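Entry 12.
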Amino acid sequence: MPQEMSTAATTRPATLANAVQLDSVSKIYGSFAALRNVSTTFSAGSCTVILGENGAGKSTLLRVVAGLINPTRGSVTIFSESPHQQRRRMAYMSHSPMLYDELTAMENLTYFAGLHRSGGCACVGSPEMALRAVGLDPGLNRPVGQYSQGMRQRTSLARVLQSDPELLLLDEPFSNLDAASAQHMVELLADFRTWPVLGGGSRTILMTTHQTALAKPLADNTLTMRNGQVLGPEGGE
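Predicted 3D structure (tokens):
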């Protein structure tokens, strides 16, 4: 990682053996169980690819880990604390780019960096460095609404990387990308894993995808979900 990207005011504690732990987590919407008694851990420094059909619970799992929704039952810990307490150490990238189409990439990243800083997060790098890290020109004076899908995805990745996350949560990062753009995304994520962490430790990635072949070079582990439950890597209980 470029040194300019790491601007934390204080040293982070050393990464613990488990970056994420879920204990008997369920998420219930009325009579529908999006997650059913999920208990699993994700090791710090690993890249885990979460597989499963639509409706299997993959996105719900990521959103619970990110602290965007609360579990109905059970508990989630991020580096041994609640997701809300560790929000500064993680970033979530939805399959939707979550960008303002009328703004340039630089304007988008500058705006989101300001939101992080106003929330008290010191771990925000330069928007310019974040864009360069994903291969985009910070000086491109074109609204992102005019970008290709691949450029939009890279801008979205730069948006989350500028907060220098130790835990990166990716929901279908290869969605709607052509083969060349998808391969570029794989290379960017592989590079991200090599970035040093201030205070020691290593980067952790949780990723949902339908495109197993693309994720395979990145994956240390795979986890399969079905009907809100975690199955073995080969699909067995």
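Annotation: Strands lie at 18-29, 32-43, 47-51, 73-78, 90-93, 167-171, 204-208, 221-226, 229-231. The CA atoms of residues 21 and 41 lie 4 Å apart.
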